[in-house]
Amino acid sequence: QVQLVEFGGGLVQAGGSLRLSCAASGRTFGASAMGWFRQPDGKEREIVAAINRHGDNTYYADSVKGRFTISRDNAKNTVYLQMNSLKPEDTAIYYCAARLTFTSGLSLIRNDYNYWGQGTQVTVSS
Hints:
Blueprint: E1 3-7, E2 10-13, E3 18-25, E4 32-39, E5 46-51, E6 58-60, E7 68-73, E8 78-83, E9 92-100, E10 115-116, E11 120-125
Parallel strand pairs: 2-11
Antiparallel strand pairs: 1-3, 3-8, 4-5, 4-9, 5-6, 7-8, 9-10, 9-11
């Protein structure tokens, strides 16, 4: 079992920055590919960024490429999402997710992920 808890959401003005953290419990964090998803109000949940278990392979959605950075610290069982140059359209509930895997790959598919956090609200005002 993996339990995930997100931190760091809040209200920020357009152009500002936030850093989300996701702390994982359990001994399988190092065997988990991780992803950050978001769900704007009334819309589907979408992939934002993903990182493999070693931290040497990442993916970003086109909408956040160049502004967001995903990283992980396996010693601390934590994955991060640094969000810069935030825009009002980044407003959403952000979720971290874990996918147990023995490969070095990552996944962009929501249904591939086994565990989810409760979500944290990010609101960007214009």
